[in-house]
Amino acid sequence: MNGVLGGNTTVGTISSGGLYTAPASVPLPATVNITATSAADPTKSASATVTIGAAVSVSVSPTTASVQVSATQSFTPTVTGSTNTNVTWSVNGVAGNATVGTISSGGLYTAQWQADFNNLASVISNIADSQDFNILFTGDAIARGR
Fold it and tell me: Fewer CB atoms inside 10 Å of the end CB: C or N, the chain?
């Protein structure tokens, strides 16, 4: 592998059975050449190229917020491991609506009057990642038990 029998921690390792394990961090260059050479005829071989990329991770700040009905809360996403840092927002798994509230493409959440106050915590998920965070609705509507 890249001229190193069995590989190493920089480029990754490969078992005698052909199982490749990528390194803990992306090497420079990010491509690794893997070669299988025949034990019966060392002049015969075949190669494969593996491109190693970082895992994409998404976090959201804040992870919890209290929002008055009809008020707004700004959320900030952080995307690592990719040059594409765009996210798509959703509220309770949908684009947002008059029941659960809405969120703009810039991460500005607006709580709605018609929100379901029997479910006090409304979860907003960034569909690019599984990290969840909660918004607790507060105000007169909760005191009336809507």
Answer: C
What residues does CATH 2.60.40 cover in the chain?
57-143
Supply φ then ψ for residue 140, to 5 degrees.
Answer: -60, -35
Q: Count Cβ atoms within 10 A of the Cβ of residue 3 and give its class: 0-12 exposed, 13-18 middle, 19 or more buried.
A: exposed
β pairing state of 12-14 and 20-21 = antiparallel
Residue 88 to residue 107: CA distance in whole angstroms? 9
Q: pLDDT, tens digit, for every residue of 53-107? A: 888 899 999 999 888 888 999 999 999 888 889 999 999 888 888 888 899 999 9
Kindly report the CATH number that applies to the domain delimited by 57-143: 2.60.40
Strands 89-91 and 72-74: unpaired
Q: Give tens-digit pLDDT for 21-32.
A: 999 888 888 899
